[in-house]
Design goal:
alpha/beta; 236 residues; 5 helices; single chain; 13 strands; Rossmann fold; 3-stranded antiparallel beta sheet
Length: 236
């Protein structure tokens, strides 16, 4: 697991081998799609949303169409629960296309759709991670800038960079902070409770548009809010 400050990884996705989540979300032999099963987590999801409202003006349920960018490993664009809401795709990763070759981006997208009213959402597939879950700083910065320029309402980032010396002012944190009209929801990381990754760090240095999210496990970085993980799967 690299801690090179220029090379990051998809957070929590590094716990899965590449392709594992894709196999769980689409059974090729039976041509059967699956989605995230949140039925046992509904109370925790609602609690997380209430907490998030304290940190982000745009994280609650939306009334109007919300332009939501998922900055991740891409999406399974043919998935029946994603396709109707997918507005556009952009590739900033080192892969050649916007499809998900890892699985984490699809997993995150389905979890997001399970916790909102999909009919109020315009999804934007912004690929920053390759099939191995690897992300470059420069690619994330370009993707965040794209979100600001294209007036995204929300940007969900499940990736980060270990930067011990950053106090919310590194290039990645600055890019997220400068996207001040975008509600940036970002993973706190998976390097332990005292290693919050960038750009999640920026939240603790007065970046009001950033909400960091962690899990109730020792490998999670220090977050602004706690959300459940380890979801199950159910057929569509």
């Amino acid at each position: 697991m690299s801690c090179n400050r220029n090379e990051g990884r998809i957070c929590d996705g590094m716990n899965f081998r590449p392709g594992y989540l894709l196999e769980r979300l689409y059974d090729v032999s039976n041509k059967r799609y699956y989605t995230i099963d949140l039925r046992n987590h509904r109370d925790k999801i609602l609690e997380a949303k209430k907490l998030a409202e304290q940190y982000s003006k745009q994280i609650s349920e939306e009334v109007n169409k919300t332009k939501c960018a998922i900055l991740d490993t891409g999406m399974m664009t043919h998935h029946p629960l994603i396709k109707p809401y997918l507005k556009a795709s952009e590739n900033f990763s080192q892969d050649d296309d916007t499809e998900d070759h890892h699985g984490h981006g699809t997993y995150v997208t389905l979890a997001f759709l399970e916790t909102c009213n999909p009919s109020t959402v315009e999804l934007y597939n912004i690929k920053i991670g390759n099939g191995y879950g690897e992300v470059l700083r420069s690619d994330m910065i370009k993707a965040i800038s794209w979100c600001a320029e294209n007036k995204m309402t929300k940007a969900n980032i499940s990736a980060g960079f270990v930067d011990e010396g950053c106090q919310g002012n590194c290039d990645v944190c600055t890019a997220a902070r400068n996207a001040s009209d975008v509600s940036v929801v970002v993973s706190a990381g998976n390097y332990g409770p005292f290693k919050t990754v960038c750009p999640a760090k920026a939240e603790f240095y007065s970046a009001n548009n950033i909400t960091s999210v962690g899990a109730q496990y020792s490998y999670s970085g220090q977050p602004g809010i706690i959300a459940p993980d380890h979801f199950g799967f159910r057929p569509v």
